[in-house]
Every structure is written in C-alpha cells, then in structure tokens.
C-alpha cells in the first residue's frame, strides 16, 4: 500500500515499514491521531520505543503479542522487552505497557496518550519457552514458573521415560 503511494524503502526490514507508517500518519494527523491510525493500519506483533523530539514513546501491538515493560533507573525511565533488564540495571519496575497502549515519557513524568487494546490478547508462547530469561516477568506472569507448569502439563499429556530434561546450552542467548 505504501509503495502504491510512492514510498520507497531502503531495506526489507519490517521495522522500516513500521517507521514509515508512523512517520506518515503522525505527519498527516498529529501525534495522538497519527499513533491511533498507524496502530489500526499495522498488522502483526511489535513492541517499540521511539524518540520524537525530547520525548520517548513506548507502544505495543493491540493483541499484546510482544511484551514491553518500563521502569526507572535513578531519575531516568527505561523501556525494555523484559523485566530482567531493569533488574540487571538495578532499576525499579513501574509496570507493563498494556496491549495497544502508547505512553509518552518526558522529564516531568509519563502519561498514557493512547489506549486502543483488542478485545482479546494473543501472547507469543516463544517468549515464555525460548526468548525470555527465566527470571523475567511478562504481564505479571513469572517466566520460570510458566516453564515449570508447561513442563508438568507436557508430562501429563505426552509422558516419556526420561531421566532429566535439559535445554540446548546457550541457544536462547544472543
């Protein structure tokens, strides 16, 4: 659709498409309505942090497929894909960015400028089984405990004779 409107892309990255949609919509409709329209146009999963002028914006797809959390380290706000980042930095978790929410951060604090969630959520299961660190919390749910519960359920549904279950070493690290 953007190509039909004459937009040219430098890469094949989905992030570039997301930024082009946001840039176009915010440029035409202003900040709040631009975000609102862009979120309605974008399909798929995303959790983003974006700086516009002197403000930081954090936003998440309406289904909440990808996690996003924010907190404070000293006098600075931090936005991250998982809570363990704030733990490592010695920060204080404030809360998750809700599905479909856009939060604006400035020197004076933060405020929700848009909240347009879906009627349902659709979390990515790979966040719990593969992507996230076990000490992370996603939308109030501990990753480690979720893995334990999934393992118990798997053992009930598909029992096998095994001595021990082990991960592929360092496969989830980047």
Automatic annotation (TrEMBL):
Please name the SUPFAM superfamilies in this protein's record: N-terminal nucleophile aminohydrolases (Ntn hydrolases), PRTase-like
Q: What Gene3D superfamilies does the record point to?
A: 3.40.50.2020, Glutamine Phosphoribosylpyrophosphate, subunit 1, domain 1 (3.60.20.10)
A GO molecular function annotation here is:
glycosyltransferase activity
Pfam families associated with the record: GATase_7
Organism listed in the record: mine drainage metagenome
Give the matching InterPro entries. GATase_2_dom (IPR017932), Ntn_hydrolases_N (IPR029055), PRTase-like (IPR029057)
Keywords associated with the record: Glutamine amidotransferase, Glycosyltransferase, Transferase
Keyword Glycosyltransferase included in the entry's annotation: yes
Q: What is this protein called?
A: Amidophosphoribosyltransferase
Cited PROSITE patterns:
GATASE_TYPE_2
Which residue numbers delimit the Glutamine amidotransferase type-2 domain?
Answer: 1-108
């Amino acid at each position: 659709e953007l190509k039909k409107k004459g937009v040219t892309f430098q890469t094949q990255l989905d992030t570039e498409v997301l930024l082009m949609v946001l840039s176009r919509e915010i440029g035409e409709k202003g900040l709040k309505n631009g975000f609102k329209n862009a979120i309605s146009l974008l399909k798929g999963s995303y959790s983003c942090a974006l700086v516009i002028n002197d403000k930081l914006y954090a936003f998440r797809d309406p289904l909440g497929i990808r996690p996003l959390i924010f907190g404070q380290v000293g006098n600075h706000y931090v936005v991250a894909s998982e809570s363990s980042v704030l733990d490592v930095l010695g920060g204080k978790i404030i809360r998750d960015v809700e599905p479909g929410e856009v939060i604006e951060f400035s020197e004076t604090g933060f405020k929700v400028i848009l909240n347009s969630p879906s009627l349902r959520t659709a979390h990515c299961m790979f966040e719990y089984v593969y992507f996230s660190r076990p000490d992370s919390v996603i939308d109030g749910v501990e990753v480690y405990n979720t893995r334990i519960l999934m393992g118990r359920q798997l053992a009930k549904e598909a029992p096998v004779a095994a001595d021990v279950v082990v991960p592929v070493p360092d496969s989830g690290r980047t």
